[in-house]
Amino acid sequence: QQQERQQQQRQQERQQQQQRQQERQQQQQQQERRQQQKQQERQQQQERQQQQRQQERQQQQQQQERQQQQRQQERQQQQQRQQERQQQQQQQERQQQQQQQERQQQHQQQH
Question: In the 3-class helix/strand/coil scheme, how is 31-67 assigned residue by residue?
Answer without folding.
Answer: HHHHHHHHHHHHHHHHHHHHHHHHHHHHHHHHHHHHH
